[in-house]
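Ticket #4471: structure output looks truncated?

Reporter: J.K.
Steps to reproduce: submitted the chain below (118 residues) through the standard prediction queue, then opened the result file.
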Amino acid sequence: MADFTKLDVWRVAHAFALSAYRLTGTFPAAERFGLTSQIRRAAVSIGANIAEGCGRFHKGDQARFLQMAKGSAKETRSHLMIARDLGFMPAKEQQMADVQLERLERMLSSLIRTSRSS
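Returned output as attached by the reporter:
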């Protein structure tokens, strides 16, 4: 697989991780070890798993790490919904993040299909 920094999906994941840090920066201090940490770790995990998959030689390993990245995107979505419902972030911000995550999930699904078929 290509150098991960050249993959559009990794670039989108990287940009989203930066956004996640900004989004959670306004959360209550009491959530520093709760949702703030969970959201940040899950968001960072998306790009990290893409990068790790690129370092694997076997297509099955690559696909497995891409699937983990997709799972981290879903985890992030779930955490952001909880944050919204607790009033830690406006619904509009959560919806915008959700759109970015849906795009990431579609990109990952496409790359998983490509990885498995080649």
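Triage note (M.O.): checked the attachment and the full token line is present. Helices lie at 8-24, 35-54, 59-85, 91-117.
Status: closed, working as intended.
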